Amino acid sequence: MLFVSTSGALGRYIDMPVPIIICSRAIIAAVIIFLFCRYNGFELKIHNRDRKIIALSGLLLGLHWLTYFYALKLSNVAIGMISLFTYPVITTFLEPLLLKTKLRWIHLVLGVIVIVGILFLVPDFSFQNDYLIAIIFGIVSALFYSLRNILTKSKMKEYDSSVLMLYQLIITSIFLAPSYFLFDTNNFSDQISWIILLALLTTAIGHTWFVHSFKNFTVTSASIISSLQPVYGIIIGVIFLKEYPNVSTIIGGSLILCSVLIESIVSYKESVVER
């Protein structure tokens, strides 16, 4: 989570069009993870029956990164990361729809708490307000992230986390490759060192270890641990970018993170009882 949390500050700091940042990040991280997989002798073959799901998870990862980085560019580290962190609660609403499980009353209560938290984050409900647009991007990013995690979890028993991450990065790279012809890349050489840092720390190490945690923990347990991410991210933003969250951001963020913790702990206790 500490490594993944660097995405907020780096996403704000790197001065490049968002699609270029994400595509470059994906390509560099894919090369690093490919070399890691080859060094460890991991089997890279994907069964035909799994290709569509893994390709879809890669597309969702790319869309998640795009919308998340636009949220960061339009606001700040605190707003971008907190709005993204609606994803654990979104997951609890998606599971009944996708897996046909029963929606519990506590999910509705927590959903209301998240909405109240979001209201604190938005100073003015106008589409001329960059913060409102950033929060919408963050919530859409959370939706993509939730769907990607559910799909990835379903394949963890069959493939190593590094292999799954490698193919997702390849799909993201292919999806965003046209951006090099559509956006300005004049200052690419000035920013490449920071993009490499983003690819190495945040993606190759952070995201791969996070995906690997699905093998040792439930997605719910991983959500409990990942609640540290916005806290780490905001601290990094304060130290390196001097971005201090205001009182309403702290209140809204606290409500959202509390709902995430409550949902994760309740689900974890229920899973323990079932086992």
3D shape: globular
| Helical content class | over 70%
Averaged pLDDT: 87
CA distance, first residue to last residue: 27 Å
Give the tally of β-strands.
Answer: 0
Low-pLDDT ranges: none
User: Helices and strands, in N-to-C order?
Assistant: HHHHHHHHHHHHH
Count of DSSP H/I helices: 13
Overall radius of gyration? 18 Å
Q: Can you tell me the number of structural domains?
A: 1
Please sum up the structure shown.
The chain has 275 residues and is an all-alpha fold.
What would you say this structure looks like, in words?
There is one protein chain. With about 280 residues, the protein is mainly α. The chain has one domain. About 80% of the residues lie in helices and about 0% in strands. It contains 13 helices and no strands. The chain has helices spanning about 5-15, 20-40, 50-75, 75-85, 85-100, 105-120, 130-155, 160-175, 180, 190-215, 220-225, 230-240, 245-275. Helix 2 (about 20-40) packs antiparallel against helix 8 (about 160-175), helix 5 (about 85-100) packs across helix 7 and helix 11 (about 220-225) runs antiparallel to helix 13 (about 245-275). The radius of gyration is 18 Å and the shape is globular. InterPro entries: EamA_dom, EmrE-like. It comes from Flagellimonas iocasae. This is DMT family transporter. Keywords: Membrane, Transmembrane, Transmembrane helix.
